[in-house]
Specification:
single chain, 348 residues, alpha+beta, PH-domain like, Neurobeachin, Chain: A, domain 1, eight-stranded mixed beta sheet, 13 helices, 8 strands, disordered N terminus
C-alpha cells in the first residue's frame, strides 16, 4: 500500500507478488535503488504506513520490515486526515522532503512501546550505536504486531511493553536506594519507563528543580532550606499559589470547562524550546513559534535564579527542568555567532 491510503496495511510476501512491487516502489519513491536493493524490499514481511518522529516534526511514509532490515522511506506528498491519520502529527509539522532510514534487525538492542499525542500507537528503537528512533503507526494493534515480529527475528532485543511492571521487575528503585545507580540514572530510567523521549518534544524528559538558593556565592549543602521539597509539585511549593489554585477549582462553574487546578503544565514543547533556545533545532523551532523572530528579550531564558523565582511565585509558571541542566552546560552559553545580545535584543 502506498503512503496516503486511508488505513495502515500489513502485507504478506505473497500479497506483494500480486502487487507488482518493483513498479510500485519505482513510481512511489523513485530513489529506492540508492539505499535499499529491490530484493530487500521485495522480501519484506510487513509494510506499514507511519510517521518517523523527530524534534522538528514528522516524516510521513512507510516502514518495510524484511528478515534482516527495518527500512523507512518517506513520501513527499501530504497525508490524509481520515482515520486513523487524524491521530498522527499535525499537518503543519509534516516535513515533505525525502528521508530514508535503514536499520539491521541485529543492531537493534531495545524497543519500547510509546505514546504519541496520547495514543498508544508508537514505538522507539535503540541501536548498538546508542541512537534512538521514534515511529508512530497510528494503531495500537499494528504497533504491537511490529514489536512482536522484530523481537521474534532477534530474540536478543530487550522489549519493554508493560513498562510499569518491567520497572518493578528490574528493581530500579531498590538499586537506587542501594546506591547502585546514581540520582541521574534513576531519574532518566523513570523518564524512559514513563514513555518520555528525546525524540518527542511534546513528551520530553523531565527533571525536577532541586535547589532553592541561586544567589549565594557559597552554598551550604547541609542546609535543608537550600533544597526544594520534592514531595510537592512546583505549583504547590508556595502556599499562596495553592490557595489560588484551590479557589479557582472550587469556584469554576463553566459547563464547557471541567474544573482544574493548573492552567499550564510542568513540561511542554514551549518549555523545552525556552530552555534550549541556544541550541538547534530548538533555535529554529523557537523562531518559528514567534513568527520568524526571537521572543522579546525579557522572556528569553537568561537567568536561572530569575526562572526559579518565577516558578516559585508566579501561579502561571509551574515548569520543571530538563536533563540538560545536569549534564550539558553548553546549552547555557551563546556559542554561535547568530545567538548573541545583538540578535536576542536589549532587555527593558
Amino acid at each position: 500500500m502506498l503512503p496516503g491510503t486511508p488505513f495502515p496495511s500489513i502485507n504478506t510476501v505473497d500479497d506483494l507478488e500480486k502487487m507488482n512491487f518493483r513498479k510500485e516502489i519505482a513510481q512511489s519513491v523513485g530513489f529506492a535503488n540508492d539505499v535499499f536493493s529491490l530484493k530487500e524490499l521485495k522480501d519484506k514481511i510487513m509494510k506499514v504506513s507511519c510517521e518517523y518522529i523527530i524534534l522538528k516534526g514528522a516524516f510521513f511514509g512507510d516502514i518495510n520490515i524484511s528478515p534482516k532490515y527495518l527500512n523507512f522511506i518517506s513520501c513527499e506528498k501530504s497525508r490524509s486526515d481520515e482515520p486513523p491519520y487524524k491521530f498522527g502529527a499535525l499537518k503543519s509539522v509534516l516535513i515533505l522532503t525525502p528521508k530514508r532510514k535503514q536499520f539491521r534487525i541485529k543492531d537493534i538492542v531495545k524497543i519500547y512501546s510509546r505514546r504519541y499525542n496520547f495514543f498508544k500507537s508508537s514505538f522507539e528503537i535503540f541501536t548498538k550505536s546508542g541512537r534512538s528512533y521514534f515511529f508512530n503507526v497510528y494503531v495500537q494493534e499494528t504497533r504491537d504486531e511490529i514489536i512482536r515480529i522484530i523481537t521474534k527475528m532477534n530474540p536478543k532485543i530487550e522489549k519493554f511493553t508493560n513498562q510499569s511492571g518491567e520497572f518493578e521487575k528490574y528493581d530500579y528503585t531498590n538499586k537506587w536506594l542501594r546506591h547502585e545507580i546514581s540520582n541521574f540514572e534513576y531519574l532518566m530510567t523513570i523518564n524512559m519507563f514513563s514513555g518520555r523521549s528525546f525524540n518527542n518534544i511534546n513528551e520530553y524528559p523531565v527533571f525536577p528543580w532541586i535547589l532553592t538558593n541561586y544567589n549565594s556565592d557559597d552554598l551550604d549543602l547541609n542546609d535543608e532550606t537550600n533544597y526544594r521539597d520534592l514531595g510537592k509539585p512546583v505549583g504547590a511549593l508556595n502556599s499562596k499559589n495553592v490557595e489560588y489554585y484551590l479557589d479557582r477549582y472550587h469556584n469554576l462553574c463553566d459547563p464547557q470547562i471541567p474544573k482544574f487546578h493548573y492552567g499550564t503544565h510542568y513540561s511542554s514543547a514551549g518549555v523545552i524550546m525556552h530552555f534550549l533556545i541556544r541550541l538547534e533545532p530548538f533555535t529554529s523551532l523557537g523562531i518559528e513559534l514567534q513568527n520568524g523572530k526571537f521572543d522579546i528579550p525579557d522572556r528569553i531564558f537568561s537567568n536561572i535564579s530569575a526562572t526559579w523565582n518565577s516558578c516559585f511565585s508566579n501561579a502561571s509558571d509551574v515548569k520543571e527542568l530538563i536533563p540538560e541542566f545536569f549534564y550539558f552546560p553548553e546549552f547555557l552559553k551563546n556559542m554561535y555567532i547568530y545567538i548573541n545580545l545583538k540578535y536576542f535584543g536589549i532587555y527593558q
